[in-house]
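Reproducibility note. Readers wishing to regenerate the assembly model reported in the main text can use the exact inputs given here. Chain order matters: entities are listed in the order in which they were concatenated for prediction.
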Amino acid sequence: MKFEFDNKRITGVLTVVPHNTVKFDDEISNYNFSEKQSKKLKLIMGYEEKRVAPKGVCSSDLCEYGMNYLFDNNLLKREEIDALILVTQSPDYFMPATSNILHGKLGLKKETFCIDISQGCSGFIIGLIQAFMLLEQKNINKVVLLNADVLSPKVSKRDRNSNPLIGDAASITIVEKSNKNEKIVADINFDGLNALCLNIPAGGFRMPSTMETAIIREDEAGNFRSLDNLVMKGDDVFNFVLNKVPEQIENLLSSNGVTKGEIDYFLCHQPNKFMLQKLADKLTISYEKLPNNIVENFGNASGVTIPTCISFNLNENLLNNEYKVCLSGFGIGLTWASMLINIGNFDFCKIIEY
Amino acid sequence: MEQFEEKLAGILEVDELNDNDILEEFEEWDSLSILSIIALFNSEFGKTISVADVREAKTIGGLKKLIG
Amino acid sequence: MRDKVVAIIQDNRPDIDDVEHAEFVTDGLLDSFDIVTLVAEFDKTFGISIDGADITPDNFNSIDSIIEMLKKNGAQ
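Running the prediction on these inputs yields the following structure tokens for the assembly.
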């Protein structure tokens, strides 16, 4: 589905990462890689270190911490928040919505519209689309978009498809109305037939968690996980991304009369280094223009990787400069979403530690 | 330059710096120290450097060369 | 090219006997991480970038299919 907006802008991005760091080298004995292979995979996939929330810390805790940072530093006022969107697939509870819980924790006004969106890898772009749609309303002038996931508790430590990569994080993006008449365009596609390529089988209503679902079993590749754990069909997702995403980006650019040369950065979801390098090669763009360094520095925290990529690679440069960027998120759903937007002249752009 | 070195030492949480010190070997070295260094270059010299620039610098001496 | 390909596979997986005639994927000898490692090595050795869409089990099942895929991606 194609979307078009104008007179909207992002005015700040704050990323919150847990202080706690886990290194690939310390968990290497969990996997059945040979020593030689693990050294090579470190470089190829970007296995290095990831940020993991301490036990008991939830997505809303990271969000609350970041929001309080903004309040305390006069970067945001409670009364100004007209809508709060939380994009997460690790909610505090099945019910109520976690954005409602945050509404209470943050002491927001009763008019603040709160909504949870259950999306992951494409979640930043889907959240932005929701924010832009809300800003069409005359009573909504400032939207807080939260992307947060603490999925590490759901990942089996002996699953080499996921454990080396998955990290935890949260981001806060302020989205407002703007006078600048710059078009924002996006395209989002869904493939529900392959929905279970990325899945946590048990724990929902389809298959409630029981003692049975907690039993750890070995798969054909020598990974150990239970039905309560995240499972990723890595090969299928890789092929899906390399087949669908370049086409979506090329179409978005050409149908809006924008060339690759005019785009300053391609800021993509960060599944692993290898996939992003192949994506850049397929699009014939440089690795400088399509950063691939978030997994090795922080891990892959699902929908938070794009704002983390913005905060880490563009950082303070976004305070005084403007860039024409292509955002692209792809993965769980299966969903793939791309957006062309100008970003810059932010009030803040930082990473802080919880 | 002295102020810069002092602040850099503060980011890396050490008492003194030598040009040959390897950045990755500082105990406090992580991705957030990279960001603090980028911010430092911005505030001290009004200079924009990238994450890649900091990584390629490899040593304290390499960082100083980035001042230009 | 054949010699280089055989050598790279033997170097990464010295435990595989008879690389020349093996059916890597059908016989469960190479998994996706092996394939990723091989792709990175082939890319470096031949100065190419194998198209992601060509990284499929079929293309990696035998020395012959690997060579065909490499040629398709510009290796000489």
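We highlight two features of this model. The interface with chain B takes residues 21, 49, 288, 293, 297-298, 312-313, 315-317, 350-351, 353 of chain A (CB under 8 Å). Chain A has a mean pLDDT of 96.
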